[in-house]
Structure formats: structure tokens, C-alpha cells
């Protein structure tokens, strides 16, 4: 059973999310709240598997809450799935930097939300395929490039190719089709890339690719 904490300051939205999640046999709502500070407090007390986090909320916004729950230096980071809308897309990159395991649009269909929760709970990262290129690409200029003279990447040419496609928002199956490889082989490549670069998930891999000029 995947235990989910839902945090959204809009009561109707929060109620809808709770209803959708609780209707699943493998998901259970551990709690819900309407501001970021409450999300932090509840997450630390309830220890959910996934926190579904809104961005713009009172008391403490979703980005700051995510940083406290999943950011650098957090002893027991919580998996956070950020939900956003197009008019909030300027916050997405900051949410990913704060440690979010992925993001979805608020107008995503219920099955995509449920898939996102399960994906994040499994330890994988989720970048909404509909918005990855637009959101990350639009705000890539905010990513500070690596310093001149910084050590080169330890990746092989094939691993660099896979990383480039990951940064473009392709799934493992799409990368497999693009490079004429099996999905299992692509999965192995992605695991090696994360291990070599000391990255946690695909979200961090995307940021790395932009920061080091692998994607423009």
C-alpha cells in the first residue's frame, strides 16, 4: 500500500485528489492539508511514501516545503510529486532543484496522476511528457553553467547520447525506439549515468545536462 499525503490550499482540489487516490486498491491517503508548513509537519509525523504538493500556498509555499522534505542534506528525504499549472511554470525548475521527484500539470487526467504517484513511490522520477521540453527548456538559462575548466563528464559517447534524450523528456521506451535498443538496455544505461554522475534520479540528470551544455 502506497501512503500519500495531499497538500493543496484549494479545498475542492484537495478533496478531489483525496477521493481519486483513496479509490485505488494500492493507494491510501495518509493525510491532507492546505499549506506547506502543515505538509512538512505532517510528513515528518506520518512518514508517507509520497507527498503530492501544490506550489503556491499560504504560510509556506510548496517549493520551500519540498526543500525541507527532500532537499540537499535532509537525512530521510521524502518523495515529493509537485503539481503545477502553466501559469506557475516559472516555479518548476526551482521545485526540481528543491528535491522534487517530479511534476505534473494540475489538469492532467486522473490516470496520469495515479501513474505519477506510483512512479515516484517506486523510486523513479517523473517528468510530465507534455511539458518537459517546454518547462525545462524555457528556464534552462537560469541554470548556472559549470565553471570554466571544470572536469569533463565521465560518460561514454553512448551514455551521453542517452542522457541527451533523457533531458529531451523521452521515456525509456522512447529512447529505446530512437536508438534501436531494448528498454532493459536503456534502463541499464540510465542507471549507469546516475551512478557515474552521483545523481539521484532523472530529474537531476536533466538539470545536469542543461548545466553542462549538453542540451540547449
What's the SSE blueprint?
Elements: E1 2-7, H1 11-22, E2 27-33, H2 36-46, E3 50-53, H3 62-70, E4 79-84, H4 92-97, E5 102-105, H5 110-121, E6 126-127, H6 132-138, H7 157-167, H8 172-179, H9 183-197, H10 202-211
Parallel strand pairs: 1-2, 1-3, 3-4, 4-5, 5-6
Helix pairs in contact: 2-3, 7-9, 7-10, 8-9
Give the end-to-end Cα distance, rounded to a whole number of Å: 40 Å
Low-confidence stretches: none
Secondary-structure-based class equals alpha/beta
Under CATH, the topology of the largest domain can be stated as Rossmann fold
Number of domains: 2
Can you tag this structure with a few keywords?
Arc Repressor Mutant, subunit A; transcription; six-stranded parallel β-sheet; 47% helix; single chain; DNA-binding; DNA binding; 216 residues; 6 strands; 2 domains; DNA-binding response regulator; NreC/VraR/RcsB-like_REC
What does this structure look like?
By secondary structure, the protein is α/β, with parallel strands linked by helices. The chain has 2 domains: 2-138, Rossmann fold, CATH 3.40.50.2300; 147-211, Arc Repressor Mutant, subunit A. 47% of the residues lie in helices and 13% in strands. It has 10 helices and 6 strands; from the N terminus they run βαβαβαβαβαβααααα. A 6-stranded parallel β-sheet has the order 2-1-3-4-5-6, with helices on both faces. α3 links the parallel β3 and β4. The longest helix has 15 residues, at 183-197. It is globular, with a radius of gyration of 17 Å.
